[in-house]
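During the first year of the project, the team set up a workflow for recording each protein of interest as an amino acid sequence followed immediately by a discrete structure-token representation. This format lets reviewers and collaborators read both layers of information side by side without switching files. As required by the reporting guidelines, we include two representative entries from the current panel. The first entry is reproduced here exactly as it appears in our internal archive.
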Amino acid sequence: MAASEGRTGGLMLGDPVPWFSAATIAGGRVDLHVDAGRWIVLAFLGRLERPRAAQELAELLAEAPLFDPERLVVYVVLTAPPGAEQIAALASISGPALAFIADYDGVVTQCYGASATGRTVVLDPMLRAVADISWEDPGRHAAMVRGLLRGLPDIDASAGVPLGAPALIVPRVFDFPLCDFLAALHEREGGVDSGFLLDRNGRTETVIDHRLKRRQDLVIVDPELREIMRDRIVRRLLPAVERYLQFNATRMDRAMVSCYDAATRGHFSRHRDNINAGAEHRRFAVSLSLNKDYDGGELVFPEFGRRSYRPPSGGAIVFSCGALHEVTPVTRGRRYVFVPFLYGEEDAARRLENNARLAAGEAPYLGDRDRLYPDPAPS
């Protein structure tokens, strides 16, 4: 599938590529790590006033029927601002499957070895370079890109064999009466609108955007109930985490019951749980189901295909906080779930240090309520 073998243009085919975050000319933003789980085309055109760049763009846009936000996303990287009329024209054709990146300082272009000559780089769903096609052969570049794009397989067939996400499902962690009690507690008390962490100007802050996340959270404050939940996690979940994931968790972030409601199409779009300064301490995410009478609300790990995961009521699914994942919209009923994070002592120390990187108004970490063991954890 690759257009060339070995190292070309600063990239070694088959290797993971550098992540980047960049603005688009339409006023949006591209965060490459969130786009995993799709074929991604990076077309490094440089300056559009050059006839060659305009020609290559026209050849690429001729394949627009192939562009699909669930399968094939195209990012055109520009190193100089187009004219005002051209910016308006490009913004008008931009969308979920096509965007024009304003790389006016050339950082992304240089990182991908495209400063000297234009090129097209194609990434697989795990963000690894599978093609690096240079402009050095003017007569063949567009034809090679066209043939490659038309031959790309579906996402679930991208590896040649079906893929399963590196996630551990552990049944029977919470007893059914405890699940019912927690779900009823949320239904009676209600929850607050749930945000997500975002880094802005070097500081981590909580942001609410219903386009990306819609969930209601209830923090459990009763000490006796928190102790019951902690006890079940320690006795029934941690042994499996240590055995199968080779991680000795000593702390747990958040004693919280969450609700994804079909009435508001509760969901959580693609994200990773440890990207921000306020979340770097997180090692493993836990999603423990408290009920089963709902439709939708399933976990998907896009880097490993579109297969969905749903642990049984009372059971948990555990996965790395570095894994890209999403919660699909709930279409019927309400999904109640316990959603803590697991980490260790070194991670807790990092979390304390990162208090300095929290935005004003964010609650600092004190390190006094998240221990999984009353006494120092066994070595």
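The second entry, processed by the same pipeline in the following quarter, appears below.
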Amino acid sequence: MIDLIQLILEVLLKTNFMKSLSTIVLVFVTIIFVGIQSLSAQDKPQKEYVYQTFKDTRIINTYSTETLQKGVLDFRVAHRFGDIFGVDANGNWDVGNLWANFLGFESAADVGFGVEYGITNNFMIGFHRTKGASELRSLLHLNAKYKFLSQTKDNSMPISMAAAGVLTVSTMPPSADVNSLANFPGGFGQRMIYSLHVLAGRKFGDVFSLQLSPGIVWRNLVKFNDNNLLVSMGVSAKVQVNKVLGIIIDSNIPFDQLRWSANSGYHIPIGIGFEFDTGGHVFQINLTNSAGIEPTDYIPNTNLNWADGQFRIGFTISRGFRM
């Protein structure tokens, strides 16, 4: 402001207008106007955003509304072990499997690792590799997420919203079994699966968070009685016990007649877990009936049932590095 006033005075001095009363009045009006503008800019309240609706970019399997900060590279490892119980020949929970398979640790249902990077504070991309838990194995996943709404503390924006997309490609060699889905008779395009989800979440105080995640999965290759397009609704929640520990739950419900049939063999993926924020990284341990890790895998292919003891221990470790 002072520089602007000095400039005005210099111009007026050079033009010999300072002797004019009207010019003096103009100078004072300019000073007052600039001062008011400066005060208004300082007094204008800045929006305060709500952070960490969820601690991680994923809840258990479901993508959360959270994005990485610009310049942060996140390395993550995820693991799904084998069934803790399973059923015996009589259809009862196989308690003996607890020791024989050591809580499922001796069987790896799926393993994944990869990196994600924050392009901006609201846009991130990632690349992951998973073993795969269906007929299509050796999966490469390219994912992206954009956060286009952020919840504010004054509730002028009551929710956070983001869109998350995944492109999955199976790199497994074609199966020798002519009846296998993995023959890829139509060529490379049949190796691809896509998903897109809209994520809407809200943090209710410091303790409870809720998210809804409507989305679609499109598979280029399916069995003859299945559908290429699957529509689903994800429901996720978090209860923050203290600064370090949170309890998380998620589920993804497919709206598909085949998957709601009594004898279809498909089940709704449901997970419950504990989330630990150590400051340097986020560690999560969970129980889930889904074998797959990415939505292009677990939403269409979950065929394990909690009621039959077909749930397993899983964990995820996420470590961020500022580049």
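For the second entry, the following points were noted during internal review. The chain has two domains: 2-43, 72-322. Residues 21-43 form the longest helix (23 residues). Both points are flagged for discussion at the upcoming steering committee meeting.
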